[in-house]
Amino acid sequence: MKTLSKFLLGALALGMHASLANAQTTRLNSYDDLVQKVSAAEEKIAAPAAAAAPAVNCCPTVDCCNSCDNNCERGHFYGMWESVVVTPHFTRNDAFNGDPNTTFTQLEWDMKYSPRFELGYLAAGDRLGFRMRYWHFDNDQSLTASSGDVEIIISDDPEIDLQTDGNVDINHELKLRVLDLEAMKRNGGLLFSGGIRYARMDQNFRATDIDNFVSSEHDFEGVGPTVALEGRHRLGNGSLTLFATGRGSVLFGESNWTASDAVDALFRTNDGDVLPIGELQLGVDWSRETRRGGLAFLRVALEGQYWISAGSGMKTDLGTSSNDGGVADPQEPDMGLIGFTIGAGFAR
Question: How far apart are the C-alpha atoms of 67 and 60, rounded to whole Å?
């Protein structure tokens, strides 16, 4: 019985080997030689099937793992530079009021370029990645009041103001510094992140005529939690991806306000100030793999930010020409920024 089994096994192996070797004759010297020939034949049969199996392409992008169920073999490092072009808006941003003190002239701000960069590591699967974002914004707006009586009131007690019937040069400067340090994790087409935000805001309002001046300066510096959620949707099998990002931050810190003219000065500080910030971004990005295995990408997006009680310039408690009330404190008005961003980056 044992001899018959060996005979049948040898006949089967010889038939398989003959077919794979284009019917060439094979000579077996021992049973071990037979086993080796059978193993070689099995490897030759399995090789074409393995070669035909499609490879999983986990490209190094935020949404690369949508097609492979978050089973990417590795994470990737990336860097991005954004040109943020936004215009400041304030719920009240009066430059001066004129006779009869019921008509206010607003400062009209222009769009301004500002840089923002991001560096990070996007981990594979369920692991945590990290990123750092920094934004630097610096803008100012000026006008000259040259008709009729001009009155600029910063404070009633002590009385800090400027009243003249001549030309007055008015300037309002706004500076923002924002740094985010976050951990992040992806789940399909969603990217969750959370961490710490540091921000500093400086606003300087100044009006001068030939003999006098009046100024109002206030700043805020604080730290607090920030969270963000980004959703992405690839358009077909192409290189375009739609994305939407929402972010919320609450900062706790110190604010200072200084007002002065040629005679008096006023200083106020708050060690327990709070500054909430909301942000929204909607856009599309385009990506392309490089020859060295990395990924280059471009993105364009609309962006809006809302800074609650960020303040503005002068004190405006008399209302506008429509008699809508007013704001009695330069630190009370809300501030928004609206515009667009253009970014480019590389991942590997």
Answer: 13
Q: pTM score, two decimals?
A: 0.74
The amino acid occupying position 2 is K
Q: Are residues 41 and 107 in the same domain?
A: no
Q: Once rounded to an integer, what is the mean pLDDT over residues 199-226? A: 90
Cross-strand partners of 103: 98
Tokens (6 digits) for 283: 């856009």
Q: Is the dihedral of CA 93, 114, 139, 85 positive or negative?
A: negative
Q: Taking residues 36-50, report their average pLDDT.
A: 59
Instruction: Determine the average pLDDT of the residues in 154-175.
Output: 78
Residue pair 36/26 in contact (Cβ under 8 Å)? The answer is: no
Q: Express the helix, strand and coil content of the chain in percent, nearest 5 each.
A: 15, 55, 30
Between 75 and 83, the more confident residue is: 83
Q: Which domain holds residue 229?
A: 64-347
Region of poorest pLDDT, from 184-193, 205-214, 236-245, 279-288: 205-214
Q: What is the pLDDT of residue 70?
A: 43
CA distance 220 to 269: 10
CA distance 346 to 344: 7
Same domain for 276 and 223: yes
Residue 29 and residue 37 in contact, taking contact as beta carbons nearer than 8 Å: no
Considering the domain architecture, whether residues 244 and 341 belong to the same structural domain is answered as yes
Q: Which residues pair with 179 in a beta bridge?
A: 134, 198
Residues 44 and 151 in one domain: no
CB atoms within 10 A of CB 57: 9
